[in-house]
Amino acid sequence: MSLKLFKKTAILLIIFSIFTLGCTKKKEAGPSSMEEIYKVQGVPVKVETVQLQEFVKSLDYNATVNGIKETPVFAKVSDKVMNINAKIGQKVQKDQVIIDFPENNIQASYHQAKASFQLASQTWERMQSLYETGGISKQDLDSAETQFKVAQANWDTVQQMIHVRAPFEGIITDINARKMQAVATGDFLFTVSQLEHLYSRIWVSETDINSVKKGADIKFIWNGHTKIGEITELALSINKDFNAFAADVILDNADLSIKSGVTGTVLVEIYRNNEAVVVPRNLVKKDETGKTFVYVAENSKAKRRDVQIGNESELDYEIISGLTPGDILIVSGLQFVNDNVKLSIQ
Fold it and tell me: DSSP class of residue 254?
């Protein structure tokens, strides 16, 4: 290598070393520069004024709700569906005929049962007249009455088999049949529900049972809808199958916005304070001795404030001492905050 080339190479190495050293120093100087800025200008933080607000503690359970009164109806004969006399969502009355099967169905013996009932009815009326005139004994009258009642019960049963009726007043919430569809005995036909109120059962653990009371207010949340209700019954003994206590819940659903069979969240209120100091959990710190504290802003400086926690929820703490309404609570930028640090309130 020539002397001239050697000198050029050495100069380039020196320049590269200087540049690299300069970059390293700049990187090392970064944090110091930021600390200096914070010392002069203050740590940027956001604050909120402490105000009294509602604090509610609840237990949550997954629950499936159904109509307060709900009955599925099944086919009692095998045959083709002749008529469907209602639609899903339609309100029906007790004993209103919903589905018709052919009256000549072999299983039902519809016409025979009808004839037997008519004969027993006529006989019963005739026997009553004869008894009033002394033509028959009381035993004969009682026997005719018994035959009439048996025939009447049989006729009612056969009619229900062929002309399937709603068991009570309600809304048709499901139909599982089509006109001229062949169904078998025991096949599900339709459901009648009363949906103005909904029922569910939740299972309360042994740990929580002393916090849950009969009559406690509850909320049911499903798909953006919230309904209010209460615990109407609470078991006094543990269910061995579930290893928990059964609690029956009734909800108001007057607008029918909650559908039968959906699964949502039941919130059982176990504590309420309508005038509480409430702080999000992430703002409450704990020191090495176990003391809990927050930071407040006083005269543009951060001040540590020891606090005492009361009840707690998933997101918040109820503060029972250490903070009062009007205090300025630091809610953002806490990673750079220490006691007596200068603040820049954003």
Answer: T
The tokens for 279 are 């702080």
pTM for the structure as a whole: 0.67
Residues of the chain with pLDDT under 50: 1, 3, 5-6, 10, 13, 18, 21, 23-30
pLDDT at 314: 84
Which of these, 230, 208, 236, 204, lies nearest to 217 by C-alpha position?
A: 230
Residue 236 contacts residue 280 (beta carbons within 8 Å): no
Helix (H) or strand (E) holding 210: none
Q: Are 228 and 243 in contact (CB under 8 A)?
A: no
Fold of the 76-189 domain = Helix Hairpins (1.10.287)
HSE value, Cβ hemisphere, 13 Å, CA-based, for 210? 1
Nearest to 21, CA basis, from 29, 32, 9: 29
CATH number of the structural domain 42-54+274-345: 2.40.420.20
For residue 345, count CB atoms less than 10 angstroms from its CB and return exposed for 0-12, middle for 13-18, buried for 19 or more: middle
CA pair distance 154, 158, nearest whole angstrom? 6
Ramachandran sector of residue 215 (left: φ over 0; alpha: ψ -120 to 50; beta: rest) = left
* CATH of segment(s) 60-67+191-273: 2.40.30.170
The stretches of the chain forming alpha helices (DSSP H) are: 3-41, 110-132, 138-162
Q: Quick one: pLDDT at residue 134?
A: 87
Confidence at residue 29, expressed as pLDDT on a 0 to 100 scale: 44
Distance CA(267)–CA(153), nearest Å, equals 47
| pLDDT (0 to 100) of residue 32 | 56
pLDDT recorded at residue 36: 75
Domain boundaries, the chain: 1-40, 42-54+274-345, 60-67+191-273, 76-189
